[in-house]
Amino acid sequence: MNFYDYVRNIQNFPKAGINFKDISPLLADKHALANCLSELVVLVGSQKIDKVAAIESRGFYFGTLLAHKLEAGFVPIRKPGKLPFKTIKEPYELEYGIDVLEIHEDAIEEGDRILLHDDVLATGGTARAACNLIERLGGKIVQCNFILELEFLYGIKKLQDHSVCSFLKF
């Protein structure tokens, strides 16, 4: 299956100068959706995963599915004010501004083997912030797992201390 056919470019979104990679067509096609999940599982290989942590909101599309397939728990990493229990916070820069991520302070136990998932690796700021949150709670990041990577933004440099996998490269 050619997954590139299911990613459309949206010019000037969310602001002028950004060429957004939209995976909505992939999500809408049942075969592409199932095959994408299979590809993400293949990236993990035989590694033991205790929990899948996924970044709001597009990371949730496959994060819970991956957790189910890998027989692991699921941990949401969200923007401020979205989680109901006590949280820890981590600020980060992204290609079009500054934001903050939060995670429940009891979401990860010391030594948990974590798969971090998001749809896109761009500048790496969001993923780096998520890694920092996971590690502050004592989690061990087994892999940072993405559907697609925007190689020209060099986000992988911010994750050099982790295994990073994606199956679509732009």
Q: What features would you describe in this structure?
A:
- The chain has 170 residues and is an alpha/beta fold.
- The protein has one domain: Rossmann fold (3-Layer(aba) Sandwich), CATH 3.40.50.
- Helices cover 25% and strands 35% of the residues.
- The chain has helices spanning 24-28, 30-44, 59-69, 125-136; strands at 8-11, 19-22, 51-55, 73-77, 87-94, 97-104, 113-121, 140-149, 164-169.
- The strands form three sheets. It has a five-stranded parallel beta sheet with strand order 4-3-7-8-9, with helices on both faces. It has a two-stranded antiparallel ribbon with strand order 1-2. A two-stranded antiparallel ribbon has the order 5-6.
- Strand 3 (51-55), helix 3 (59-69) and strand 4 form a beta-alpha-beta unit.
- The model has no long low-confidence stretch (mean pLDDT 96).
Summed up, what is this model?
The protein is α/β, with parallel strands linked by helices. It has four helices and nine strands. It comes from Aequorivita aurantiaca.
Gap from first CA to last CA: 17 Å
| Radius of gyration, taken over Cα atoms and rounded to an integer in Å | 15 Å
Portion of residues within helices: 25-40%
State the low-pLDDT regions, or none.
none
Structural class: alpha/beta
Strand content: 25-35%
Count of the separate structural domains: 1
Output the CATH class name: Alpha Beta
Q: The CATH topology is what?
A: Rossmann fold
The CATH architecture classification is 3-Layer(aba) Sandwich
